[in-house]
């Protein structure tokens, strides 16, 4: 009886409306171009911007970035500064779809006006369609343009207490006293005290409401 009561309470807790939650990260590893980035060689600065969109057969660079957007800080346009720049983080609060359109742009930061308003500041643009599953491992990629080479890596992972293929399942606060949530490879939970069945029951009921 107590076991059935526990299952009921856990399923009820999981019936709360919960948004999916995760982060897409992209790291610029290197960028080389044959063209001049800035008019002057000294104090030349650059930044990279990414746009995540729903899958498109013909990818448009025009907004909106339906899945989110982000950029690096303005950095010096040299190999060391670019390779050591922090990853671009794009948080999301929807079920991760797996397939997406990705646009990566390099802009010079020479103009005193708003950088991206002036198309003369655009150094390069990559538009591609990719498929990426939830996971901590980084995927490596390289793009060869007519005059440029861009190497980058990216991954997508769930926020704390979210799990599943699309970060759409949630380990509710009401059950966290039972112990921490540990994820197996592939994003599936391994829970303490034999609670896996109860959690999956609640997640199943929640999924039927969405």
Give a count of the beta strands, DSSP E runs of length 2 or more: 13
Percentage of residues assigned to helices: 10-25%
- The domain tally reads 2
Instruction: Please summarize the sheet with the most strands.
Output: 5 strands, antiparallel
What is the CATH T-level topology of the largest domain?
Immunoglobulin-like
* Helix-and-strand structural type: alpha+beta
Global shape: elongated
Averaged pLDDT: 79
Cα Rg? 21 Å
Helix-strand pattern, N to C?
A: HEEEEHEEEEEEEEEH
CATH architecture of the largest domain: Sandwich
Roughly what fraction of the amino acids lie in strands? 35-45%
Number of helices: 3
* End-to-end Cα distance: 29 Å
CATH class designation of the largest domain: Mainly Beta
Q: Which consecutive residue ranges, at least 5 long each, have pLDDT under 50?
A: 8-17, 183-187, 192-210
Q: What is the strand and helix layout of this fold?
A:
Blueprint: H1 2-14, E1 22-33, E2 45-53, E3 68-71, E4 75-76, H2 79-83, E5 88-92, E6 99-108, E7 122-131, E8 135-144, E9 148-158, E10 162-163, E11 169-170, E12 182-183, E13 189-190, H3 196-209
Protein name: DSL domain-containing protein
GO cellular component, one term: membrane
InterPro entries: DSL (IPR001774), Notch_ligand_N (IPR011651)
């Amino acid at each position: 009886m107590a076991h059935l009561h526990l299952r009921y309470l856990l399923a009820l807790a999981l019936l709360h409306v919960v948004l999916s939650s995760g982060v897409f990260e992209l790291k610029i590893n290197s960028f080389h171009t044959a063209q001049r980035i800035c008019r002057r060689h000294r104090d030349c600065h650059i930044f990279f911007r990414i746009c995540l969109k729903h899958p498109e057969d013909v990818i448009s660079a025009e907004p909106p970035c339906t899945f989110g957007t982000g950029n690096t800080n303005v950095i010096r346009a040299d190999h060391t500064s670019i390779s050591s720049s922090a990853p671009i983080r794009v948080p999301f609060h929807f079920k991760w779809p797996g397939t997406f359109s990705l646009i990566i742009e390099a802009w010079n930061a020479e103009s005193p006006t708003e950088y991206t308003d002036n198309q003369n500041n655009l150094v390069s643009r990559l538009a591609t369609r990719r498929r990426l599953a939830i996971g901590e491992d980084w995927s490596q990629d390289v793009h060869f343009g007519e005059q440029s080479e861009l190497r980058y890596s990216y991954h997508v992972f769930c926020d704390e207490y979210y799990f599943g293929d699309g970060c759409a399942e949630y380990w509710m606060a009401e059950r966290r006293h039972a112990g921490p949530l540990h994820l197996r490879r592939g994003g599936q939970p391994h829970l303490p005290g034999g609670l896996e069945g109860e959690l999956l029951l609640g997640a199943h009921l929640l999924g039927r409401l969405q």
